[in-house]
Structure formats: structure tokens, C-alpha cells
Records
---
Amino acid sequence: MRSHALNQIEAVAGGTPRLIGPGQTYRVGNGPTIYLRTRDRDQRQGDHRVDWFGLRLACWEDPDAWFVLQCALDFAVVVRVEDWLPYRDQIGRTQEGNQRQPHVHREGNTTELREANGLVLDIGQWVDNWDDLGQAHR
């Protein structure tokens, strides 16, 4: 999954992503920071799956950075951090409180961020949003 996402990043950014920090933190050239996370699917009943990802609180500090949340080999959520900042405090935290854990639900053709506090956000605009990530590298 990681290599699949890295290949996609390389294709749109025009260079090889290099590891620059803890976890799966990358940069291509002088482009924005990319926080890559991968997750194998958690299949629910019927045509419903959920993927969740750990994003350290520090990941949210740079609004120009990007989250690439690779959901198995099926799709990726590719979103600029700034786009999710209005929802950050509604996204669940780990027990330790040092990470946010967005929960990506796909049911049929609908992809949503769903959190226990009631947040339901259609995130279809960020599914396989590779072109915007590529533009951020130009």
C-alpha cells in the first residue's frame, strides 16, 4: 500500500518522495510536506468499509501540508491540511490524546468522514485528489 501511494505521489509531483520525518512523512523537492498513512480495509456488513488513521497533533500545524490516507489499494483520500482544519476538533483522539484519528467510511458510492461525536462529512471531493496534490508541487 505504501509503495502504491508513493508511486502515485511521484507521478503527480514529478519527483521521488523522500522521507523527512517520523512515521511516513515525505517531501518531493521543495514541495509541501506529505503525511502518508496506510490502512488495510475493515470490512463491515454489506458494501460498507471503514479505515482510520493516526495523525499526530503536530501534523495539523502546517496548513499547506497534505494528508494522503491510502485506503488499502482501493482509493486514497488526498487533502490539504487546511481543508480539514475546521473539523480537526471534531475528529476523535487516541486515548493518549496525542493523535487525531479520522474515520473514513465508504458505503456504496459515498465516502464520508464519520466521527463518534456526530460529525458526518462528505469527503468525495478528496478521494483520489491527486491532481490537486500535483498542482501544489508546481
---
Amino acid sequence: MSEFSGIENASSTARLANLRPGVYVLEAQAFKLVNSRAKGKMFISEWKVVEASGVEANEVGTSASQGIIMSWDSALGNIKAIVAAGSGESEKNITSAMCDAIVSDKNPAKGVKVRAEAKLTKTRAGNDFTLIKWAT
């Protein structure tokens, strides 16, 4: 038996780069709901950088992601903003059914382009945090 038996069903732990400060046009690649060993359930959005401006911005053509820890108080509001931008809907029209659909295997938002502005800020604890504002 091979040392790699079962690799066909394994998930990669490869990480995409986070968005750095800049102004972007991003193309949706995937939205996922995953279980992280360290952080519990997370909503992951994966993007391809189509346009970018800013000294520290990710390069055009590269991939980036954002992970939102579902247990945080801000999680649902942040996910609502991403789903609204990706669907072209107003935030007031976002439903749990829409969020369930966006993380489904059908990947209905793949290819949708959104605008985003990423700014570096500090948390209450003094740690760096990238705040992302989403728009259609």
C-alpha cells in the first residue's frame, strides 16, 4: 500500500494571500464554509485580483482570500456585505438562503466582479487588522 493512499480525498491546507491595503476589482473564485481546527467554523471568500491600485496592493492576476470566523460577533454583518456585493443585492435583501446557496457546490457567484477597498487598521488589542469595504 502506498504512503499516499487516500490522497485523492484529502483537502489541501494551502493558504491564499490576504488582501493588502489598496483599491481593487476582484473576481469571485469560490465561497466556502469550512471547519478550521484552530478557529472553528469559517466563511472563506477566494478572489482573483483583476485591477489593483495602491503601493502595498496585491498584484493583478494573483489570488487572495478573506476568512471570517463564524463565532465572532461581526461575522454575519461582514458576510452580508460580501454577499450583497457579489449578488448586486441591497444588504437589506440578503437572506440565510442566499448565503447557503453561495457556499454550495454549484458556486453560483464564481466570476462575479466586485469592488473592494482594503485599509489597515488596529484592533482594540493593538494588532493589525485589514478592514475591507465591499461594493458592486
---
Amino acid sequence: MRVKQIGPEEYKEICKWWTAHSWPAIPQTCLPSTGYMVSDSEHSSEVGVYAVWLMLPKEGSMAWLDWWTVNPDAPKEGKTRLLQELVEHASTEARNAGCSVLFTALEKDKVSFIKKLETTGFANGNETVTHLIKILN
């Protein structure tokens, strides 16, 4: 397994994942440079499995992991291990940037994914929040 920073080629691959999930592609200009993809190198060819972006604060000590996505064609075996590796990498990057808290938000119906994240040290903070987005023109 391998975690790497998301560059232009990885971004193109992730856009295909978003399309397969019927999600809109997030413009690359809206995403921070601290995006990471974990790949499963135990197969004959390296396959990207999960991706996430780490948003580091200019002030304060809380970082945010967002825009989680998974390759819909990735093999099911070993996904929890790969997710744990990705979260550990992002946690290390956040710690190295001076952060002491890592925050993420997920849709409530993503129970299986939430349970996997809880194995990495995340705890459920609130189940009744709606996140709103305002596009600034």
C-alpha cells in the first residue's frame, strides 16, 4: 500500500470515481494541495482505492478531512487496512502542521464507512447537523 499526494493524474482518476458515484466533480482549484490517495500495491497493478483532502488552518489547531471518495472498482479485500493507512498519513501531516484535532463530516447513512473511521480513532460528535455550502461569486 502506498499513500501519495494527489497530482493532476490522480485528480483525473478521482473525477472518474465521482462520476461513477453520480457525484459532481469538485473543481481542482477549490481543493487544497494537501490531497492524498492510498493505493493497493498488493495486486498486479497499483490500484487507487481511497482519496481525501486535508484542509489545514491558517489559525487554530483543527484540521479538516473532506471530499472522501472511494474507487467503486477497487477490490473489496483490505479496504479497512488501506483506509487506516490513509487516515494515519493525514493525521501525521496534520500533527506536523501543528494541529491537535482532526475533524470530518459524513452523510449519516454511511454507517459502514463511519464504523471504519471509528477504528482509526474518530468519535461521533453530532448526528443532527446539516452542513450548508455557499458558493461565493
---
Amino acid sequence: MSIPFLPSLRDMVFLLVSALFVLGAVDGGSVFLTRMSVPDAARQAGYAAAAAAENQPTTRQTAMVAFRAARKDAATRNLVVRPKDFTLYPDGRVTLTADRTAPTMLLHRISALRHLTDVSVTVTVSKYAPAIWKRG
């Protein structure tokens, strides 16, 4: 009769520490990627708002139309844009603040580290998206 292999306490601790390290690395990567992508996504939402308000008088109604366009574009990018953080200027510029919470497996469960998953960015954009590539 053979005795099945039972891992030692040392093996179990090593496995637990390794798992926590891997989870921390994955969560750190998730937070990093979220911090890198939110400014671009917020800018795109701003461009959508500026395009919606183009050639319109700067009125409350136009601002609401622009805000709805920004909110709709932001929702497709998993961003939240709030009305109090949205401004439409008479020259067509738009300032907005966009928020996103990084998807994590571990960080959002630790209250002392939860704030690391929240990403917020404020951007100001003009009417048109700048041309990245110019053909000469």
C-alpha cells in the first residue's frame, strides 16, 4: 500500500507566495494598461462631443447634445463622464473628466489598495481630431 504524496508546509507556502506574486503582476498590468488607455479614450469622447456641437450656438441645449454624444462614446469605451465635469466653450472646445476602474482580481478586494484601480483624467479638445499621419 503506497502513501499518496502530501506536499510539505514549505511547498504550500511557496505555492501561495507564487500565486500572490502572479496575481499582483496581472493586477499591476491591468492598472498600467488602464492608465495608458484612459486619456486616449477620453479624448475620443471629447471629439465626439465637439463634433456634435459643431456649427451650433453655445446654448444649454447644445451643451446637453454634446454631453450625450460624449457619454455615448465614453460608454462604448467603459468610461464614465459626469455632467458636472463637462464644459462646452463658445469656440467649440470641450473639457471633460472621464473615469474608469481597472479590472483586477486582487487589488479591488483590499480596501487600502482599492484607490489604485481608479483612473480619472481631464482632457480639453478642440473641434477636430489632429491628423496623425500627413501624406506629403
